[in-house]
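Input structure tokens:
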């Protein structure tokens, strides 16, 4: 008798049973999805592909890393628990899962497994970021304590703050070499190109492309058609749902693209960056976002100044050249593009006029609730109680204040805003130090590009909002920024460490 065959037979039976159970679960899921909205079918198929990808592909973590970077521009999201607001909308109407979250969840599982298996791996918590995040979470929890809001909405908001920290932590710890940095930048630029092509297609078709499940605005004509003087212009939004959001995204990528032209990279790469810049710049113009144009102008001048200074080492001359380029670019753009000129200088009937009274309401809220705010996600619900504007703006335009910083202070309190600014300041200081490095040929220029993106983000968010603490892709860029600093330091660059001291020689 051959006894060893019995265990092998049992193993085969167990494997066959497992495959049968998984196949049955997949079949049931697809059958149920047929009766659900289309995006649920897309979601389930994507989940199955991710599971197969995660089990089969050897280099799955790196490929998932690049995929998650690309998915930050795709706003396909789901609410397994959804609550329809009775009067005013919440920023998150229930428990939200985005398509980015699926890929990111797989990445987190893989990272946690590696940490459990290899005890030599360490996690850098970056205290100047993690401690403020912890305090922000605690203060947000305290601010929601007395707010009349469904518990699932409170839980979702608090979870998304925590997820923002996880996004930062993962990318800051898992980008460990310059090749990965360059690949991530390439993926970001390709995502910008894809969004630009979608925007151009929207402009050519004069409307929606039918991509609502991927984030394209369901009410495309409401956001896309705007008056510029007496002319109606069509604004593009890609899969971001609003032209201003697409403009903010493209501006940040354009600044990274521009910074790479200064870096000592091959002529072929610089040649490939030219159509990328052209596509993204064209799409940015077609968003007709004044906030985006302003952000590009100011942040672009700042980035050019830093690049010129690295070359000629003269502050005054660098400033004058950067200012001259900005003026020339402005005059040429306004002179050649009629809708742009009309959008900037002629009266239009967009939402620009509501920003001042919205800010007045926000300041009233901050004056009454300076420490804990009125509760994260509770702005539109509470705003009418603090509306003293002649327009009654919170009734005429029931939206949060179009200023990210005022929105944070109004909903979460001035201490949370201060902690958020601490994080931003720390990242800016680290990037600025990296931009001054003389031992690395390329990373300083990427640091200049990322400094420009943070500058552009800050300018555009003076005129718009996006709930940056609620799982925003912004934290991927923050993680990338500090990962670059770490890579430069580990490779023996002249970059100071996180304590502000120069690294010691071995």
């Amino acid at each position: 008798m051959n006894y060893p065959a019995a265990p092998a037979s049992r193993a085969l039976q167990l494997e066959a049973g497992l495959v049968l159970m998984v196949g049955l679960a997949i079949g049931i899921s697809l059958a149920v999805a047929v009766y659900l909205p289309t995006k649920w079918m897309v979601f389930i198929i994507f989940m199955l592909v991710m599971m197969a990808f995660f089990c089969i592909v050897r280099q799955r973590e790196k490929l998932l890393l690049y995929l998650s970077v690309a998915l930050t521009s795709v706003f396909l999201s789901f609410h397994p628990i959804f609550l329809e607001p009775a009067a005013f909308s919440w920023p998150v109407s229930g428990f939200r899962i985005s398509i980015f979250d699926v890929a990111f969840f797989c990445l987190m599982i893989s990272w946690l497994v590696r940490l459990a298996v290899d005890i030599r791996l360490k996690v850098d918590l970056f205290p100047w970021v993690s401690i403020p995040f912890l305090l922000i979470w605690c203060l947000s929890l305290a601010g929601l304590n007395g707010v009349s809001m469904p518990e699932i909405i409170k839980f979702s908001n608090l979870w998304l703050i925590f997820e923002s920290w996880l996004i930062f932590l993962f990318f800051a710890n898992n980008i460990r070499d310059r090749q990965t940095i360059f690949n991530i930048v390439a993926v970001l630029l390709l995502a910008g190109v894809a969004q630009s092509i979608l925007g151009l297609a929207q402009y050519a078709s004069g409307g929606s492309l039918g991509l609502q499940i991927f984030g394209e605005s369901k009410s495309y004509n409401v956001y896309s058609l705007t008056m510029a003087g007496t002319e109606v212009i069509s604004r593009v939004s890609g899969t971001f749902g609003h032209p201003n959001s697409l403009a903010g995204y493209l501006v940040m990528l354009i600044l990274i693209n521009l910074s790479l032209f200064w870096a000592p990279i091959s002529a072929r790469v610089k040649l490939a960056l030219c159509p990328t810049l052209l596509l993204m710049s064209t799409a940015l113009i077609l968003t007709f976002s004044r906030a985006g144009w302003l952000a590009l102008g100011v942040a672009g001048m700042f980035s050019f100044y830093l690049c010129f200074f690295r070359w000629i080492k003269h502050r005054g001359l660098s400033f004058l050249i950067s200012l001259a380029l900005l003026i020339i670019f402005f005059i040429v753009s306004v002179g050649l593009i009629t809708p742009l000129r009309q959008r900037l200088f002629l009266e239009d009937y967009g939402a620009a006029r509501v920003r001042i009274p919205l800010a007045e309401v926000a300041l009233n809220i901050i004056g009454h609730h300076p420490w804990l705010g009125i509760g994260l996600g509770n702005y539109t619900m509470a705003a009418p109680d603090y509306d003293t504007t002649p327009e009654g703006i919170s009734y005429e335009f029931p939206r949060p204040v179009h200023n990210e910083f005022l929105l944070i202070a109004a909903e979460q309190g001035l201490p949370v805003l201060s902690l958020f600014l601490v994080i931003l300041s720390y990242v800016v200081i680290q990037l600025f130090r990296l931009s001054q490095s003389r031992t690395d040929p390329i990373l300083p220029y990427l640091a200049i590009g990322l400094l420009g993106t943070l500058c552009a983000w800050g300018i555009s968010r003076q005129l718009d909002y996006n709930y940056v603490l609620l799982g925003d892709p912004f934290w991927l860029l923050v993680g990338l920024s500090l990962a670059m600093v770490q890579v430069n330091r580990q490779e023996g660059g002249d970059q100071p460490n996180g304590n502000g001291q120069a690294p010691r020689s071995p």
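Residues 432 and 447 are 7 Å apart (CA to CA). The mean pLDDT is 83.
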